[in-house]
Amino acid sequence: MEYILVSGLLLVVMAMSVKTGKLSIPAALAGGLTGFLVFGGGGYTGLLMLSAFFVLGIWATSHGKAIKATILSQEPHPEKRHAGQVLANGGIAALAGLLAMIDPVHDVVYLLMMAASLASAIADTLSSELGMVYGRHHYNILTFKKDQKGLDGVVSLEGSLLGMGGAAVMAVIYSLFQGFGKDSLLIVLAGVLGNLLDSLLGASLERRHRINNDVVNLLNTLFAALIVLFLR
Q: What is the percent of the chain with per-residue pLDDT over 70, rounded to a whole number?
């Protein structure tokens, strides 16, 4: 019965996301599959964490869009997400959910990895999207020299702190269901380090067009998940 209710809820969210222009149809389908797997392996804890990422991510992307549009070009800052973006940010969480369904004996570990991957995803989203709006000084993560905000691998103190706050949100949601402790701190640490890797990859490989942003996001969420796996 729970799966039927959650599936219905996911269908409603998918339809609303397409209607409001937040997701393309393929992105909505990818999001629905991600949500189903996250719930299947992570229960309501996983679903709430994914929902928090979705809501915060949409808000951060639309927040200050007029400012963002003037940073690199006169084109409107894109808000509609495509399927690749959805899977790049939520694919590792979905994989962790699938593994928890296949191997329920270790479901606690997979749930922690899910939380870490989403902590990294939201940390990256908030730091990049809100850093462009509220950041006062922007630096290249590799050279530590001032650089143009909005470029790959450019960070600000304000953006980094907002990203850490996003990771902390994921840790709080996880801990409300699983209890506060070492794992809570590991989730925040993994989110911060995943976001750092994102910036490093952005300033190096992405700027040289060796990889695109979707690959960067997939790698930073995978990195975060592996951090909690080995440090737990």
A: 97
